[in-house]
């Protein structure tokens, strides 16, 4: 073999070796360069059809509006939006879009929650966007701020370490307050008590398709408890001890584990290890009776007592997702393919041409996050199909 050939083989060997080293040591690189992800990008992996489409019977007749709706088919439900006064412009955009794409035909009420009293500007700019009832609530201090029993020295060390590692929101106490509030307190707020169902909406999100069916009524009719549009991997460094506490809780309370649960979506070895998949909770439609029930109440209080919301950076997304996967049966979790949704930088766009056209969607199906290397959607598809 000539010198050029030897150099070529040596170079190829170094590249291949570097590739495998990066796959094992860098999680994001490993997912992005997986055979499954590469084949999907090249068209070798076909997107599976929506496993649980909303039946035609739940859709409004074409061209019809409020006059076709039956009062007894509305659910006891509300939108809930956590926002600061400074979020007013983003909140206006989100409310305007959900009104145009859905709520102008349904008139569901809104509950806005804030750690501080809402300004008159915020209330006036939002109130003109809909004829639906709107309430503006102040979050109680003990539901929002870091509890006194947290070891602040330990919490500070944890935040400093995350800042040193460039972990997003790693140094933020307010972000941790928000995650803890969304995990265990929003459904306890006095303004939320009269409702059973909620649809969580964030400031500055986008709804890309007309939603001409009622997700609340569909979920109530089919005994669903939790719905999502995007699922992805959690950043492991933000939850290093979370799964260990989950396993400990299950050992203490096996009676809460649902018989036909979705543990298999989050763990491939019966619960020993967590694969980091979770439902992205900035969009969720769910039954607050589930969060208010004995299983989740005990679960949240147990996790909260460990301090991980502050010593680490536990998010409400993995906490909600793990609870839904373990304490509900898998057929109680709903993927709404029909709802085109965007929270920067990720977008879910309906998979089928028929669904995309029916919703008059503005999203690009080719840019949907569903089968990105960081998405867990293919795992959900396989789990539900089994």
What does this structure look like?
- It is built from 17 helices and twelve strands.
- It has one domain: Spore Coat Polysaccharide Biosynthesis Protein SpsA, Chain A (Alpha-Beta Complex), CATH 3.90.550.10.
- Helix 5 links the parallel strand 2 (110-114) and strand 3 (134-138).
- The protein has helices spanning 3-25, 27-32, 35-41, 88-101, 120-127, 141-144, 152-164, 173-184, 215-221, 242-252, 263-266, 288-292, 294-306, 308-311, 316-327, 353-358, 377-385, and strands at residues 77-82, 110-114, 134-138, 197-200, 206-207, 226-228, 231-233, 277-279, 284-287, 333-335, 341-343, 346-348.
- The protein has a seven-stranded mixed beta sheet with strand order 3-2-1-4-9-6-10. A three-stranded antiparallel beta sheet has the order 5-11-12. A two-stranded antiparallel sheet has the order 7-8.
- Mean pLDDT is 89; it is low at 19-46 and 67-71.
- The chain is globular and about 55 Å long.
- The longest helix is centred in the N-terminal third of the chain and has 23 residues, at 3-25.
- With 386 residues, it is an alpha/beta fold.
- Helix 4 packs parallel to helix 5 (120-127) and helix 8 (173-184) packs parallel to helix 15.
């Amino acid at each position: 073999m000539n010198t050029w050939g030897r150099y070529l083989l040596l170079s190829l060997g170094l590249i291949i070796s570097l590739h495998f080293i990066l796959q094992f040591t860098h999680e994001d690189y490993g997912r992005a360069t997986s055979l499954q992800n590469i084949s999907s990008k090249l068209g070798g992996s076909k997107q599976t059809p929506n496993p649980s489409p909303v039946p035609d019977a739940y859709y409004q007749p074409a061209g019809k509006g409020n006059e076709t709706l039956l009062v007894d088919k509305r659910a006891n439900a509300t939108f809930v939006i956590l926002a600061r006064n400074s979020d007013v412009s983003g909140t206006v955009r989100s409310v305007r879009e959900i009104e145009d794409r859905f709520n102008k035909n349904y008139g569901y009420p809104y509950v806005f929650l804030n750690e501080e009293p809402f300004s008159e500007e915020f209330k006036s700019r939002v109130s003109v966007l809909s004829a639906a009832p709107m309430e503006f609530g102040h979050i109680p201090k003990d539901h929002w701020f870091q509890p006194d029993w947290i070891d602040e020295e330990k919490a500070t060390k944890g935040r400093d370490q995350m800042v040193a590692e460039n972990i997003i929101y790693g140094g933020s106490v307010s972000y941790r307050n928000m995650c803890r509030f969304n995990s265990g307190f929003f459904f306890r707020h006095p303004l939320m008590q009269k409702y059973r169902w909620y649809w969580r909406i964030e400031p500055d999100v986008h709804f890309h398709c007309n939603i001409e069916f009622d997700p609340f009524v569909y979920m109530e009719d089919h005994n669903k408890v939790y719905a999502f549009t995007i699922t992805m991997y959690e950043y492991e460094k933000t939850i290093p001890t979370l799964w260990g506490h989950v396993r400990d809780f299950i050992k203490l309370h096996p009676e809460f584990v649902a018989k036909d649960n979705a543990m298999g979506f989050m763990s491939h070895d019966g619960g020993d290890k967590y694969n980091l998949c979770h439902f992205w909770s900035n969009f969720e439609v769910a039954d607050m009776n589930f969060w208010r029930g004995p299983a989740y109440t005990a679960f949240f209080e147990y996790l909260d007592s460990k301090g991980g919301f502050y010593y680490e950076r536990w998010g409400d997304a993995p906490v909600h997702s793990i609870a839904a996967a373990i304490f509900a049966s898998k057929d109680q979790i709903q993927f709404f393919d029909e709802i085109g949704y965007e929270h920067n930088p990720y977008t879910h766009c309906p998979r089928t041409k028929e669904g995309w056209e029916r919703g008059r969607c503005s999203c690009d199906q080719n840019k949907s996050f569903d089968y990105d290397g960081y998405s867990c959607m293919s795992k959900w598809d396989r789990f539900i199909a089994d």
